[in-house]
Amino acid sequence: MDYTCIFFGVLFTLGGFVFATGNGHSHLSAWKNMPPEEKEKIIQMLQKSGKVAMVGDGINDAPALTRANIGIAIGAGTDVAIDAADVVLMKSRLTDVSAAVRLSRASYRNIVENLFWALFYNVLLIPLAAGLYAHWGLNMNPMWGAAAMSCSSLFVCMNALRLNLFRLHDSRKDHRGRNTLRNDRKLITMNQPETGKEKGKDKKMKKTMKIEGMMCCHCEATVKKALEALDGVISAEVSHENGTAVLELSGDVSDDLLKKTVEDKDYKVTGIE
Predict the structure, then answer these.
(1) What's the CA dihedral at 77, 81, 82, 83 to 10 degrees?
(2) Taking Cα atoms as reference points, which of 219, 230, 225 lies closest to residue 268?
(3) N or C: at which end does the chain have fewer Cβ atoms within 10 angstroms?
(4) CB-based contact 223:262 (threshold 8 Å)
(5) pLDDT in tens, 55-64
(6) What is the predicted pLDDT for the residue at 203?
(7) What is the dihedral of CA 140, 144, 147, 152, to 10 degrees?
């Protein structure tokens, strides 16, 4: 069975949404003024507990949007943020994030209902129309079979049209996700340095790529997303100003594969150290 049609429904339901909040404006201001690499580290920490979605609108949000399992950009945000995101909200209301989740869940349920009905109909009535039940005296006139097929299609279409009546901003039926973080202070401590023990836990490989052709932050986001999609690449710190990409690897990744990945995006790799 082909599940491509329910991709967008699953897309939204996978994530637990991330809000790095604390005591009022002080923590919101800290998040707003935080360097891009710090935001990315926080997203990476949260991913240890499950799927993470990031909502952002600025250039400094692009690395975190790329790192998150689902990046969501505000429609009025910068072009760099929109290009780095997986989902773009057409309006600038933050409530549209939760509305998108509700709509995707409703769409997913609707698709499952239609698939169940189609399976039930095909298993039960197609053999009947083909005469497979004739041994038991069960037959169907071809005219009734054609009418039943039309009714089935009509049912599926009408069921899908029920989504037009769905209340996007009604939160009464919301439910908590399985991986919702109830206390993010235990997981995130802003600007807290790592201890020597923590640094020694994971010894990771690093490689530095020299890349020509990157002109802006959008180029950085493109190269970063391509490299981090490779198996064995934990993170990629890309700078168009320095013309470099510093990779953090969990294992051995061949230089040829790294070079090919970047050059497939129309950038030139001049060296890997």
Answers:
(1) 150
(2) 219
(3) N
(4) yes
(5) 888 888 888 8
(6) 57
(7) -30
Residue 232, amino acid: G
What SS3 state is found at 247? Answer: strand
| DSSP assignment string, 159-218 | HHHGGGG--TT--TT----TT--S-TTTT--TTPPPPHHHHHH---EEEEEEEE---SHH
Mean pLDDT of the chain: 76
Residues, the chain: 273
Give tens-digit pLDDT for 13-54.
333 333 333 344 444 555 667 888 888 888 888 888 888 888
CA–CA gap between residue 139 and residue 131 (Å, rounded): 6
> Could you give all domains of the chain from N- to C-terminal order, each with its CATH number?
1-192 (3.40.50), 199-272 (3.30.70.100)
Question: β-pairing, 205-212 with 244-249?
Answer: antiparallel
